[in-house]
Amino acid sequence: MSNMETHKKLTIGLFGFGVVGEGLYKVLHQTPSLNANIKKVCIKNPGKKRNAPAELFTTSREEILSDPEINVVVEVINESEPAFEIVSTAIKNGKAVVSASKKMIAEHLTEILDLQKTYEQPFLYESAACASIPVIRNLEEYYDNDLLHSMRAIVNGSTNFILTKMFEDKLDFKQALILAQQLGFAEVDPSLDVEGYDAVNKWTFLLTHAYGIIEKPSNIVFTGIQNIQAGDAGVAKEKNFQIKLVAQAKKLNNGKVAAFVLPQFVTAEEPLSFVKNEFNGVVIESGFADKQFFYGKGAGSFPTASAVLSDISALRYHYRYEYKKLYHHTPNKLTDEFFIRVYVSFDDWKYVPRDKFEWIEEWHAEQDRKYLIGVLPFSSLRESNWWRENNTSLILSPDPIIEDIEIRKLKKMSLELAGILD
Ligand code: HSE
Prior knowledge:
globular, Dihydrodipicolinate Reductase, domain 2, alpha/beta
């Protein structure tokens, strides 16, 4: 049980006054009914001009962490190790904590779970994944994991923004990235967005809330949009597909979960094809309900601040994550035992290990840039890095997962067709 009474005023100590922190400051001013006020803001750089009264700011963490009047710590800083120190000290000091630090949460999930168990303080982070979309609370409260068949999502606003601007508005990559930075969507180090780190960090803890899976981000196969070429967009257009960076998880027939974050061709009929610019989208498929689609802004000052605000508000009614799929169900395990249908474009055949493919369905080698479509064991992506090197671009086909049983059927069929079997 939280130490906060329902009517008690929320006195906030805020860490960070960047895109999200300043957004929260403004949003809180417009929601006086919440009865929450920011007492102090801890910042790193006191020389920087801020749009708030100077007396609000401090550079001393202790001023917030040791203040008994502050009962809520909101942490929205950029660096993940200091963020973890702040969050753990705040929890140990009996404060409820709201955080937007996805990298920190993904990397320290096990310790965070232990801290929550020991100190019984709420730790909420809805804004850390898909910003304005309440995906964590939905996964936590609404979906029973036996019935949660799959999730497909766009969880990084910047890469989606860049892909939209490049392929629809014909900006080049650099211009699109600069725009994403100017609009406050990109990470301070934008390679975290572009190379898929931010998306896999978010996917790590969404997998915990969806399936009870606890994994390090480095243990989930992922890449970003850095290798996508203009030629790939041409092929996508021919086939009436779009290219998106998709985070996917699917419960297989063996009860285990296939999960990864990879570029993917998305058909025009799929809800994710409507997700443009900095928007995010999550398609959840569950027993009986079939498909549901969540859509909203996934980056930016106010959309992210709105989720932080909602967490602060949830503290009023003592809300905390129960991690139901982890503690109240049998958690699912990740598996690599499946196959994927992929498109690969490359400069030279020597960069593609053809022997790793179960079969190749199409190949086009007329031009400088060549490509093939074929089926690979998923485990082969973990075993070597050929698909990320030498300018090679790997994009998953729509509906890319093929299970073991299907592969045997498909193989038999192709042998029959070849007249080898009757
Ligand atoms: N850089 C992140 C994104 C910000 O583009 O999605 C929101 O987490």
